[in-house]
Design goal:
This protein has 440 residues and is mostly helical. It is built from 18 helices and 5 strands. Strands 1-5-2-3-4 form a 5-stranded mixed beta sheet.
């Protein structure tokens, strides 16, 4: 069980020496009450707006940055407060005790937090040292920080989205479909998998930093490691360049061309996080392209020719899945009675058209696959190509089930992960693999 990063101390002579109403509770804001870093919260409250203000100020330097951060618009209501500390403070307040926050920086934001929580004010370490306190030192109870939080492996795995690495298995698809399965090919594909996983984890951390405010108002995303305060923002900032450096080194070990594809993936991911995800339908095309880019990278990494049939089929498949993802997010908001998302250019009233486009893309994918089976491209690869026709009903079943689950509000945020977790979907995918192996 994780130990709290704060401790309770009392400077009063005894629990019964001073009436409860006359006592004062002083709480360290950072490390005790706030499960995050106030300076970092100000920095990532609205990064684009803060950057614009800093650039317009014309005064470079730390002082100018501090002034800009002091004016940041922090949503005090959704900050990650420690529930145990907050409950102690509210209980003391209910008994008539005075409650103050001890803050060493950004006193304006500390005062805003104190006002939001109904506390009596803010004191600084300088006030403590000089004895200029608005209360008697002998009546103080204090909740103070014991140092920084140390996130464990589970928290890091959650923040890095290790479970999302299943998507990066797409780099193995070109080698599998080209029937080029040997030790050298598998080794290159595995290295490509690790490079994409590290690159994607860094991008997830960056995306979560940029979406802190929006995630904290989301019913499920508020539990993400950064949004919940389980992982310090400063730790994420240190991890991002380390992950991307590993991805670059791994990419260079494969080939410069693979590194170029990986760089295109990273640039597109950053553009998606900064701007493209807020553009209607542009985000869908971008997501589909990012999934397909993994397949392209797999072909480049193992040195096989990428089939145009596989490329077109993948684009339709991933466009459908991206649309299902948006449908699930919007339907969840509709069921919860929430307003339209602030960080997406969609409305709840768009649900029907999004569902129609998702179904159309899925059916187009099945059509493309049927045309592929009818073409001469299958003859060199399969001795029994007629067996591939058995994949069509399975594809129709899987897409139809995914659309039905999304319509019933039973689809999680990510339909690709749903394919790995849903029992009937796993059976359908396993049957597809068996049919393809039997057709060889």
């Amino acid at each position: 069980m994780e130990q709290p990063a704060w401790q309770y101390v009392s400077s009063a002579p005894g629990p019964s020496a001073v009436p409860a109403a006359a006592r004062t509770l002083v709480i360290d804001l950072e490390g005790a009450l706030l499960r995050s870093e106030l300076l970092m919260e100000a920095l990532f409250s609205s990064p684009a707006r803060l950057l614009a203000r800093f650039g317009a100020g014309g005064r470079p330097g730390v002082a100018a940055l501090t002034d800009v951060l002091a004016q940041a618009e922090i949503d005090y209501a959704h900050l990650p407060y420690d529930p145990d500390v907050l409950n102690q403070a509210l209980a003391a307040r209910a008994r008539g005790a005075k409650v103050y926050l001890l803050a060493s920086r950004l006193p304006g934001h500390a005062a805003g937090i104190a006002a939001h929580l109904g506390f009596d004010g803010v004191v600084t370490p300088a006030d403590h040292a000089a004895g200029e306190l608005p209360f008697d030192r002998g009546t103080i109870d204090r909740i103070e920080s014991r140092g920084g939080r140390n996130p464990g492996p589970k928290i890091w795995a959650k923040a890095l989205r290790v479970y999302q690495y299943a998507k990066n298995t797409l780099v193995f698809v070109p080698a599998l479909t080209a029937h080029q399965m040997n030790f050298a090919t598998l080794g290159s594909a595995m290295l490509a998998f690790l490079a994409f996983s590290a690159c994607a984890s860094g991008a997830y951390l960056m995306n979560d930093l940029l979406d802190l405010a929006a995630d904290r108002q989301h019913p499920t995303k508020r539990h993400r490691a950064l949004a919940a305060g389980d992982l310090p923002i400063s730790s994420a900032l240190s991890a991002i360049p380390a992950l991307w450096l590993f991805a670059v080194v791994a990419g260079l070990c494969i080939s410069p061309l693979f590194l170029g594809v990986l760089g295109a993936y990273l640039v597109t991911t950053i553009a998606y996080s900064l701007a493209l995800k807020r553009k209607m339908l542009v985000d869908i095309v971008t997501l589909a392209g990012l999934y397909t880019l993994r397949i392209v990278a797999g072909a480049v990494g193992v040195g096989v020719v990428l089939s145009e049939w596989l490329l077109i089929f993948s684009l339709f498949v991933f466009t459908s899945l991206a649309l299902i993802k948006r449908f699930s997010e919007l339907s969840m908001r509709e069921s919860a009675g929430l307003a339209d998302p602030s960080n997406r250019d969609y409305r709840v009233t768009d649900l029907q058209i999004i569902a129609a486009m998702a179904a159309a893309s899925a059916m187009n994918a099945v059509t493309v696959f049927s045309l592929y089976v009818s073409s001469t491209a299958v003859t060199p690869l399969y001795s029994r190509p007629w067996m591939l026709w058995l994949l069509n009903p399975l594809l129709l079943y899987w897409f139809g089930r995914a659309l039905m689950m999304a319509h019933r509000r039973e689809m999680p945020d990510d339909p690709i992960l749903y394919a790995f977790r849903d029992g009937p979907s796993r059976i359908a995918v396993a049957a597809m693999i068996c049919i393809m192996l039997a057709a060889i």
